[in-house]
Amino acid sequence: MSGTKHTPLLSQLLSTWIEGEKSEEYPLANLSNAIGIIYQNISDINWVGFYLFNQKNNELVLGPFIGKPAVAIIAPGSGVVGKSFVASKTIVVDDVHKFSGHITCDVDSNSEIVVPIIDKNGNKIGVLDIDSPLLARFKNEEQSELEHFVQTLLEYI
Ligand code: SME
Question: Domains in the chain, please, with CATH?
Fold first, then answer.
């Protein structure tokens, strides 16, 4: 092996899109296109969006998303979203019906992944949340790709 690092597809698509558009200084546009890129490139998902941390009110607030209208405000520690945020760790839920405290937004959802967004200074920005109608949709492969994607996104928000 040459030691050259392979950049996962989703991250490549995001950088190419943002740099092609020269939209680096527009976080809302970049967050919105990040959602579009995930929705178009991960199969069998029914909801994808961001919850962004509002420090003033200590709340996670719904950001750009695709899917059914969803809960707008989640407290840190509540649901999969709030638990991932507090723990600063990705949470993969194979069956949301078995996750204590899961917050239902779309009755079609059966599995979920939540990836925290934390900048290089340790500031907690929020989370990326994805739901699937399939049980156990999100494997190690998706987790690594989405964690890489969030790191790439941090360069543009
Ligand atoms: N299921 C999440 C709530 C957000 S919706 O999935 C869009 C949770 O338990 O935190």
Answer: 9-154 (3.30.450.40)
